[in-house]
UniProtKB/TrEMBL annotation:
Protein name per Swiss-Prot or TrEMBL: Aminopeptidase N
Low complexity: compositionally biased ranges: 25-34
Catalysis performed (reactions): Release of an N-terminal amino acid, Xaa-|-Yaa- from a peptide, amide or arylamide. Xaa is preferably Ala, but may be most amino acids including Pro (slow action). When a terminal hydrophobic residue is followed by a prolyl residue, the two may be released as an intact Xaa-Pro dipeptide
Keywords tagged on the record: Aminopeptidase, Hydrolase, Metal-binding, Metalloprotease, Protease, Signal, Zinc
Pfam families xref list: Peptidase_M1 (PF01433), Peptidase_M1_N (PF17900)
Domain named Aminopeptidase N-like N-terminal: residues: 83-269
Length: 866
């Protein structure tokens, strides 16, 4: 599974709100350094989170103690599932018959307990050959308990057939930031009354949503083969796991498609989808590779999914295990509850992954492609070998996360991979401000808690360190061993460690213990001095060692003498440690973690000259970026500005972008030359994102007229550049640009739409623009409603008379009260807060909204705004 942008925003917001709530509650800071004296080694037992002695400061990122969540006890083995289903679109029901083949796992059994949420169970029968016999059962709307006709041993498979109706909309609503719904089965526009989207039905099984649409043992340590027959209207296309083995027209105008998967997988990976899809066909080594999309996106489907066959080859070769499944399909559906889901052979994506015109595609970037790689890699890590419990979720998600770096490295080079590393490191560190958990955690409140930036981003970075430590050959050999030894079965972290130990011959408990089983990360301070042909490198671990370990950190330090690098391999093992590195003269640069492999916050002391040298001799993007970032506050210095101007021509676009950002508000002696360089980049850089950033940077120079550049950019083929130009003109509108901006009001681009809202918030004042805000509200994504559109709408309303604001205020109030997304409610509330000083009557409304809000995290945010 991969988060959508919506999910990422939700998680970031949750982290911010958790930090806010904790601060409000305890008044404590978010970081507690090693000034506390109690130490624990990386190899010790995890530190208890029971109430600490009064002398110990508990950091705000320490989560509460949650219940232990062990792997489910296997009473029966679920061997095979056969489903025959049809749909009642009007009532949004699934009418099904499930035939399950099971056998006792070890001990004899005369009772079967199945997960079945919100069903109407009609009959349960034992199937023996052609004969069926009614079985007694009890049902409490969550569990179906069947009394078997006799006791069965572990050598005796048996079949039960259950006739039922699934009613997902009658279930209590649930979900999380990562997976926003948990009812398993979703009908989209079931009556066809919404002209903006098609009729669809689709499922989402992770974590335990499959039991909302068929009876099963809904645990990840079960594996089943399956066959699903779907009866739908003849004009709809269907998709499920495995191969389409039959398609039959029925006398009532419907059609029954039967999909069969011969290799077993976990129940949460079962799926179905039906809708008016266009199917764009591809292939890989004789296996079908199909892309299911809305018909209007059939022409651009291959631009999004077209690298799939190459990915199949790359991952198969890299892992030494060929893609094992019968086919590979990918479907984009409307209103999906997560970013994407790795259903075996039939991955589901949210619609936004393909919702691009040919004009928008050049601005899309790497994100859709990385999501495709992520879900495909799950077909080895997650589908072929599956976590035995949600506590071990990183064995699925960390690998899928790391595949994004592997693909970028292979397809686009080392710099692109380093950019992935940087972005994901930052996302984990952002979450770590409000919580720090072990990667493999057996204590959590609910399954969905595991779907966080730890399981994804931190886990991927831990795998990168493991790869760097053992080397590429050993890393991929160990992964091959792990996959081969555990194929088509469930796994836990010890099996991964053993695969690496058997491959390398080294006891790696120290690595797995500190990185997988302990919380937190190193916080390092690194200094160095030169005395008598040696560098004294001083490394301090400053993290709170009461709750996190003192780490063992194998790391490379590079010294540069006479423009020649020398690598020194050291192992940090203590809280305070000094290393002596032999050199024949004072180095021009000493670079700690020169391979940028550590998952750590590092404060490394270097002079300006050393950082300038680092940029000019950098081996990778991350070293260049670090030099730019650390020197950006000194951009007026001639040597620094020369470095930044040189970086504007770097071969890698992200370096050029970083340099453009670092030149923002430049006030040095080379002002004219710098501005000319930025204008050149804004007009002609080959990367749209760099050009857009250059436009934004130019707009930050006060009292400078670049209106002609912005106005010219309004005609650019890139929506990203058009949006940047509108944002720039919002700060400094020109007479000849107003009509051209107004002419963009009907845009279908989300970026341009939000840029227009920003423009009107600063420059609009007409009733026509007010009506535009209201008219375009349904076209704005939930993310954009929170981030910009609703606050911009409120700011615009300050520019019109109070008596004309009624409809806008009512809309903000309605969203603040009723939106199912907590961040949309917050966005609307922010809008009301902007209006409140000029509309005192809103104070009572906002108080009522606060009083009726049930989300504790949102309430904490409201408290800060008062």
């Amino acid at each position: 599974m991969k988060y959508s942008l919506l999910g990422v925003l939700g998680l970031v917001l949750v982290c911010q709100l958790e930090a806010t709530a904790q601060t409000v509650k305890s008044g404590k800071s978010t970081t507690s350094k090693a000034a506390t004296h109690k130490k624990t080694s990386a190899g010790s037992e995890p530190v208890s989170t029971s109430p600490a002695p009064a002398t110990i400061v508990v950091p705000s990122w320490l989560p509460p103690t949650n219940p232990v969540q062990p792997a489910a006890t296997i009473v029966h083995d679920l061997l095979d599932t056969k489903l025959d289903v049809r749909f009642d679109w009007g009532r949004q029901w699934l009418l099904g018959t499930a035939t399950l083949t099971l056998r006792p796992h070890f001990y004899p059994q005369n009772q079967l307990v199945l997960d079945a949420k919100g069903f109407e169970v009609k009959t349960v029968r034992l199937v023996t050959g052609t004969k069926e016999k009614n079985l007694n059962f009890a049902y409490d709307k969550k569990k179906l308990t069947v009394t078997l006709d006799r006791q069965y041993s572990r050598t005796e498979p048996y079949q039960v057939r259950i006739q039922y109706t699934a009613k997902p909309n009658e279930l209590e609503a649930g979900g999380s930031a990562a997976i926003t719904g948990d009812k398993g089965l979703y009908f989209i526009n079931p009556l066809g009354t919404d002209k903006t989207k098609p009729r669809q039905v689709w499922t989402q099984g992770e974590t335990e949503g499959s039991s909302c649409w068929f009876p099963t043992i809904d645990k990840p340590n079960q594996r089943m083969t399956q066959e699903i027959s779907l009866t739908v209207e003849a004009n709809l296309k269907t998709l499920s796991n495995g191969l389409l083995i039959a398609s039959k027209k029925n006398n009532d105008g419907t059609r029954t498609d039967t999909w069969k998967q011969s290799l077993p997988h976990a129940p949460y990976l079962a799926m179905l989808a039906a809708g008016d899809f266009a199917v764009v066909s591809d292939s890989w080594r004789g296996k079908a590779v199909d892309y299911y999309v809305d018909p209007q996106f059939a022409g651009t489907a291959k631009a999004v999914f077209g690298n799939t066959p190459e990915m199949l080859t790359f991952f198969s070769q890299k892992l030494g295990v060929d893609f094992p499944w019968e086919k590979y399909s990918q479907v984009a559906v409307h209103d999906f509850v997560s970013g994407a889901m790795e259903n075996t052979t039939a991955v589901t994506f949210e619609q936004s992954i393909v919702q691009f015109t040919a004009r928008e595609l050049p601005d899309v970037g790497y994100d859709p492609e990385s999501t495709v790689a992520h879900e495909l890699f799950h077909h080895w890590f997650g589908d072929y070998v599956t976590t035995e419990s949600w506590a071990n979720l990183p064995l699925n998600e960390s690998f899928a996360d790391y595949s994004e770096l592997l693909w970028a490295e292979y397809k686009y080079g080392a710099d692109a991979a380093a950019l992935v590393q940087q972005e994901k490191m930052n996302r984990y560190l952002e979450e770590a401000q409000s919580k720090r958990e072990p990667l493999i955690r057996y204590q959590y409140a609910q399954n969905e808690d595991m779907f966080d930036r730890h399981s994804y981003d931190k886990g991927g970075r831990v795998l990168h360190m493991l790869r760097k430590y053992v080397g590429d050959d050993a890393f991929f050999t160990a992964l091959n061993r792990y996959l081969t030894q555990n194929k088509l079965s469930s796994t836990e972290v010890a099996k991964l460690r053993i695969a690496f130990e058997e491959t390398t011959g080294e006891d790696l408990m120290w690595f797995f213990d500190q990185w997988f089983l302990h919380r937190g990360h190193p916080e390092l301070k690194v200094t160095h001095s030169y005395i008598g042909n040696q560098v004294n490198l001083h490394v301090q671990q400053l993290q709170d060692s009461t709750f996190t370990p003192i780490y063992r950190l194998p790391v490379t330090v590079t010294t540069w003498v006479n423009n020649q690098p020398t690598d020194h391999r050291i192992v940090v093992t203590k809280a305070d440690q000094t290393f002596r590195l032999m050199v024949n003269q004072r180095p021009s640069l000493v670079k700690f973690d020169s391979e940028a492999q550590l998952l750590a916050q590092i404060e490394e002391e270097r002079s300006q000259d050393e950082l300038l040298y680092q940029f000019s001799h950098a081996r990778n993007y991350l070293q260049k970026y670090e030099a730019i970032d650390l020197l950006r506050t000194k951009n007026s210095d001639l040597a620094v500005s020369a470095m930044l101007r040189n970086a504007l021509d770097d071969k890698f676009w992200a370096v050029r972008q970083a340099a453009v950002q670092a030149l923002r508000r430049y006030k040095g002696a080379e002002g004219n030359a710098v501005r000319r360089e930025l204008q050149r980049v804004a007009a002609s850089d080959k990367n749209n994102q760099v050009r857009a950033t250059a436009i934004a940077t130019l707009s930050a120079f006060n009292n400078e007229d670049y209106g002609s550049i912005y106005t010219a950019a309004l005609s650019d083929s890139s929506y990203r550049i058009v949006s940047a130009a509108i944002q720039a003109l919002a700060k400094a509108p020109t007479p000849d640009s107003r009509d051209r901006i107004n002419a963009l009001q009907a845009t279908k681009s989300h970026e341009v739409l939000n840029a227009l809202s920003a423009y009107y918030s600063l420059n609009g004042n007409s009733i026509e623009q007010y009506q535009w805000f209201l008219r375009r509200l349904p076209d704005v994504s939930e993310v954009d409603l929170y981030q910009s559109y609703l606050p911009n709408f409120a700011t615009f309303m300050l520019r019109i008379p109070v008596v004309e604001r009624d409809k806008g205020v009512q809309k903000l109030e309605s969203l603040a009260r009723t939106s199912p997304r907590n961040y949309v409610r917050l966005g609307a509330y922010r809008g009301l807060n902007i209006l409140a000083p000029s509309m005192p009557m809103l104070k009572a409304t906002m108080q009522d909204i606060r009083n009726k809000e049930k989300d504790e995290q949102v309430k904490a945010y409201y408290a800060l705004m008062q």
